[in-house]
TrEMBL record:
<dbReference type="Pfam" id="PF20091">
    <property type="entry name" value="Abhydrolase_10"/>
</dbReference>
<dbReference type="InterPro" id="IPR045394">
    <property type="entry name" value="Abhydrolase_dom"/>
</dbReference>
<feature type="signal peptide">
    <location>
        <begin position="1"/>
        <end position="30"/>
    </location>
</feature>
<keyword id="KW-0732">Signal</keyword>
<protein>
    <recommendedName>
        <fullName>Alpha/beta hydrolase domain-containing protein</fullName>
    </recommendedName>
</protein>
<feature type="domain" description="Alpha/beta hydrolase">
    <location>
        <begin position="40"/>
        <end position="461"/>
    </location>
</feature>
Length: 465
């Protein structure tokens, strides 16, 4: 394997000239295959990173780098029967295959600012191209608190799209099938640890967290239940916006339970965060909070929202990776609930949890009646983790929408329907009444641990403005 890897990396140098080749700086864990990484020069191909963030990194003291990761990936097979409780058995199939994939890194420009934790995201490919949902929602937390972030192209469709958009820059990127994805994602964690000086610009991280949204969250559920027990790659998981099921472990028709809970005997913390859109399908997989599993259901939020969409549209207009770069627009205004506040709090608590500083605070479930979300007179959900924009509302926040050119996108983007002037005057006779109500709601969320102090300050200032 090492000989194959050496030839592949030397080939990359021949193509890019000044590229820096980096073999693992420390021995890989015995249960994770060794990998190598090579930085992609800034001017390679069209001279730009596909999927590069639209966030002003320099203003936040951050920088963006891009690497290729190469190795040999395992595939896996089920062992025994997989039950709803998530205590699933798996083994390596013995079929390994060489691969090269892409790592997109956002890191502090000053290594002294690194807080020791890396968030590794399984990039979402639901719409045929890599999308960093977790970065889009929580980059403000990551950059103010000193996290490093690594986005992993773990699936074939994402790799193929990169190669088609820039055949020179990404000509080496090749994933034979999604059956390799679990091994590749495990090896990404090892690459972060073994090649920290190159990837992160600093020493080895203290903790490495896995994260993924939607389709990627379904794969993380399978990773937690079946792969992590035999390849302990990550220190904790944030599973965002999954349904009741999980993803196949290989290719073809593989019997899976319709409902897949997170195994209660997980050796590492697993934090599930669900939007109101997700709860309708996730409800069958609800489980009690335990020593290693915590779940938040965030009322008023959608599977994707206006905050993230603004970033995706800007990226897509530049990269033209989806729908020839045209923006997504829906029949109604997209959900504008501040999901990012709950996401930031979840990462903060997960980081403390994996460091042995206590489990996250509990969050109440969104209220359901016969599978339907119960709502107040304004149309907003009852129960759940509640953000100040929901408890001092100016609008009704819905979980779905309609319209749009891309099938299924608006269904996930939710809606915002402004309350009538008469209703607003009834709720808040004066501007001061609104600011008071909002501040009290923000105080409650802060006290519950569902809102961080910095986000509390931002929210209250926004309400006052």
């Amino acid at each position: 394997m090492f000989e194959r890897l050496r030839h592949g990396l030397l080939r990359a140098v021949a193509i890019w000239g000044a590229a820096v080749v980096l073999l693992p700086a420390a021995p890989a864990r015995a249960d994770v295959a060794a990998v190598g990484v090579v930085e992609i020069p800034a001017g390679a191909g069209q001279g730009r990173i596909v999927g590069a963030t639209v966030v002003d990194l320099a203003a936040r003291g951050y920088e963006e780098r891009e690497f290729l990761m190469s190795g040999s990936a395992d595939t896996f097979q089920k062992t025994g029967t997989w039950y709803t409780n998530g205590q699933w058995g798996a083994r390596r199939s013995g079929a390994v295959q060489a691969y090269t994939t892409r790592l997109l890194v956002e890191r502090p420009a000053d290594p002294a600012r690194f807080n020791g934790t890396v968030v590794v995201e399984w990039l979402n490919v639901s719409f045929g191209a890599d999308i960093g949902v977790e970065w889009s929602q929580s980059h403000e937390l990551f950059t103010r608190a000193g996290y490093a972030y690594v986005g992993v192209t773990a699936q074939k469709v994402g790799a193929d799209k990169l190669r088609s958009l820039d055949p020179v820059r990404y000509g080496q990127v090749s994933l034979a099938s999604d059956a390799l994805s679990y091994s590749i994602f495990a090896q990404a964690a090892e690459a972060v640890r073994a090649n920290a000086p190159a990837l992160l610009g600093t020493g080895a991280p203290a903790k490495v967290l896995a994260a993924g949204h939607s389709q990627s969250a379904g794969r993380l559920a399978t990773f937690v239940n079946a792969i992590q027990p035999i390849i302990p790659a990550y220190d904790g998981f944030l599973v965002h916006g999954r349904g009741a099921g999980a993803a196949p472990i290989g290719e073809g028709v593989i019997a899976l339970p319709l409902t897949a809970r997170i195994r209660a005997d997980s050796a590492v913390p697993v934090f599930q965060v669900e939007s109101e859109t997700d709860v309708r399908t996730f409800a069958d997989a609800r489980q009690p909070d335990g020593a290693r599993v915590r779940t938040w259901e965030v009322a008023g939020t959608a599977h994707a929202d206006a905050y993230g969409l603004a970033q995706y549209n800007a990226q897509n207009a530049r990269d033209r990776a989806i729908n020839d770069g045209r923006p997504i627009s829906c029949d109604r205004p997209v959900n504008a609930m501040t999901w990012r506040y709950a996401s930031n709090a979840a990462y903060h608590h997960l980081d403390r949890w994996v460091r042995g500083l206590g489990a996250p605070p509990a969050g109440p479930q969104i209220s359901l009646l016969l599978g339907t979300i119960r709502r107040d007179g304004d149309g907003n959900a009852l129960g759940g983790v509640r953000l100040p924009d929901l408890d001092a509302p100016l609008a009704a926040y819905g979980p779905t929408n309609s319209g749009g050119e891309i099938t299924g996108a608006c269904l996930l983007l939710g809606s915002t329907t402004s309350l009538s002037s008469a209703r607003l005057l009834q709720l808040y006779p004066t501007r001061e009444d609104y600011v008071t109500a909002f501040t009290r709601a923000a105080d409650r969320a802060l006290a519950a641990g569902h809102l961080l102090p910095a986000d509390h300050a931002e929210a209250v200032a926004r309400a006052g403005a």
